[in-house]
């Protein structure tokens, strides 16, 4: 499980870089480092422009500008 925080500009582009908030120290665990790197890569490559174009949430930038998202492995 990896949790990231990141901010978005009004047009849906990343504002700065995403930050791993959990686990706090993942650098010494190779498997967790792979998971954190994959989560960071997913956020960096995602297109969030749909937020600004959405007819329901588009005008409410103050609610979606700061995101905390938890990536969990698929259950088997």
Summarize the structure.
This protein has 76 residues and is of the alpha+beta class. It is built from three helices and three strands, in the order E-E-H-H-H-E. The protein has helices at residues 30-45, 50-53, 61-64; strands at residues 2-8, 14-22, 66-71.
Question: Could you characterize what this model shows?
Answer:
The structure is a single chain. This protein is an alpha+beta fold and 76 residues long. Helix content is 32%, strand content 29%. It is built from three helices and three strands. It has helices at residues 30-45, 50-53, 61-64, and strands spanning 2-8, 14-22, 66-71. A three-stranded antiparallel β-sheet has the order 2-1-3. It is elongated, with a radius of gyration of 14 Å. The two termini are 15 Å apart. The model has no long low-confidence stretch (mean pLDDT 93).
Q: Which regions contain 5 or more consecutive residues with pLDDT less than 50?
A: none
What is the CA-CA span between the terminal residues?
A: 15 Å
Order of helices and strands: EEHHHE
Helical content band: 25-40%
Number of helices: 3
**Structure classification:** alpha+beta
Number of strands: 3
Strand content: 25-35%
Strand order of the largest sheet: 2-1-3
Question: What would you call the shape?
Answer: elongated
Main sheet? 3 strands, antiparallel
What's the average pLDDT? 93
């Amino acid at each position: 499980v990896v949790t990231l925080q990141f901010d978005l500009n009004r047009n849906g582009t990343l504002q700065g870089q995403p930050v791993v908030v959990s686990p706090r120290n993942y650098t010494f665990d190779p498997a967790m480092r792979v998971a954190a790197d994959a989560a960071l890569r997913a956020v960096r490559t995602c297109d969030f422009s749909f937020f600004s174009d959405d007819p329901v949430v588009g005008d409410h930038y103050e609610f979606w500008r700061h995101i905390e998202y938890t990536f969990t492995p698929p259950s088997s």
